[in-house]
UniProtKB/TrEMBL annotation:
Organism domain of life: Eukaryota
Ranges for domain C-type lectin: 51-160
SUPFAM superfamilies membership: C-type lectin-like
Organism of this sequence: Biomphalaria glabrata (Bloodfluke planorb)
Signal peptide region: 1-19
Full protein name: Hemolymph lipopolysaccharide-binding protein-like isoform X2
Pfam family, one: Lectin_C
Key words, A-Z: Disulfide bond, Signal
Phylogenetic placement of the source organism: Eukaryota, Metazoa, Spiralia, Lophotrochozoa, Mollusca
Listed Gene3D superfamilies: Mannose-Binding Protein A, subunit A
Length: 163
């Protein structure tokens, strides 16, 4: 009995005295400065532009979206060329916060903004988005630009802490 209480106290002391591990990330404890969220921080003229975390394991689009959301973040929104350049530093195929799940052909960034004229926007690879076989509603970085892919595929993903 005593030993189990002792273990509990020790456990509470150790856990309480440390920064929470990555899986319990709490943005309230991080300003995207020296904290553990900011795997990647972009500053411009002293201002933080983006706070990102790149996953090191693949997930489906829904799984990735949920992973980001329950940590107070969202799938990364790269709706400007400055931000696309940040995304382009990634070499792996990576889910981003853009989909046409609600209305076919209407691509919405996860900040609510629509990506107008996706095919001629310059954001997508040539002949993309293709909606191949009618099932491509989620978007990845593939190479230097975007591609729509099936949401049930598993890819790496990137979470963004909203500033
Ligand atoms: Ca589609
Ligand atoms: Ca496609």
């Amino acid at each position: 009995m005593f030993s189990s209480i002792l273990v509990l106290i020790l456990y509470a002391t150790v856990i309480g005295g440390q920064a929470p591990p990555i899986d319990t990330f709490d943005p309230a404890h991080d300003q995207c400065g020296t904290g553990f969220f900011s795997d990647f921080k972009i500053e411009k003229e002293g201002d933080v532009v983006m706070c990102l975390r790149w996953s090191s394991w693949p997930n489906t689009f829904a799984g990735a979206k949920k992973y980001c959301l329950i940590r107070g973040t969202r799938l990364g929104v790269f709706n400007t060329w400055d931000k696309m350049k940040i995304l382009q530093r990634q070499n792996n195929v990576t889910f981003v916060g853009l989909d046409d799940l609600q209305t076919e052909g209407k691509f919405i960034w996860h900040n609510g903004e629509q990506l107008e004229n996706p095919r001629s926007s310059g954001f997508f690879n040539l002949n993309e988005p293709s909606n191949s076989e009618g099932v491509e509603d989620c978007v990845v970085l593939q190479g230097r630009l975007l591609n729509d892919v099936p949401c049930t595929m598993s890819y790496l993903f990137v979470c963004e802490l909203e500033l």
